[in-house]
Amino acid sequence: MIEKKIFRGRVEVYLFLKFFSREKAVFNFPLFYDYYRQLTRMAALLKIDGKLSIKDFLSLPGLVRMESSSKGEDNLIIEGVREALARLVEFREKEGKNIKKEILTYLKDLNEIIRKVKKIKPKIGEELGKEDIKEEITLITFYLRRMRRLVNEKSNLPKGKKIDFLAQEILRELNTCMSKTKKVRVASLIVKGKTCAERIREQAQNIE
Question: Quick one: which H or E segment has residue 23?
């Protein structure tokens, strides 16, 4: 039941039972009739008083046994888990909407940062030198588009790990940009971009 609703993370279930296991007595009627026939026959053969009371039978082996009535308790446990799962899913859906808004906000900020980086024109000769970050910026732009589509996708399939992976790739490209550029303005923008990507990674841990 839990695996059908929860796809990521570890779930611990604690059961607090406010009642003890109940038992019920089960009377073996076929054995009772067999005892009765044999005792009656014996009394007739011995010509003794054949009057028998229920007390005479209770001490005979096998007539009464105790069975646990746990089936009803099992049903209660299943219903309790089902109700708890429904509440958990409802809570996570509400939290998920808030997380989605936050991720989209960080994506918007990241897009704006990348747009500003693109506007900063490299000096003559830098395009072929160590400070050329066009390839990294192109990849970051690609990852941002994929992440936005993934976040907005109306699907119940797990997305957390995919979002986390894309955020890692963006961070890796931003780190490469940082190692290449010597421009203070570009470096400052990249630091802001890394902060956004790290925030997205943090939020990705809280979703399926």
Answer: strand 23-27
Distances (CA, A) of 21 to 15, 24, 65, 100, 149: 14, 10, 16, 46, 53
Q: Looking at the 3D structure of the chain, how many domains does it have? A: 2
Query: pLDDT tens, 119-161?
Result: 886 664 555 556 688 899 999 999 999 999 999 988 878 888 9
Q: What is the pLDDT of residues 191-200, one digit of tens each?
A: 999 999 999 9
pTM exceeds 0.70, yes or no = no
Domain that holds residue 187: 93-204
Contact (Cβ atoms closer than 8 angstroms) between residue 144 and residue 170:
yes
Rounded CA-CA distance 151/143 in Å is 12
110's tokens? 């990241």
Q: What is the DSSP code (8-state) at residue 65? A: E
The amino acid at 41 = R
Q: Are residues 105 and 49 in the same domain?
A: no
Q: Are 173 and 125 in contact (CB under 8 A)?
A: no
Contacts of 118-123 spanning 24+ positions with Cβ under 8 A: 120/183, 120/185, 120/186
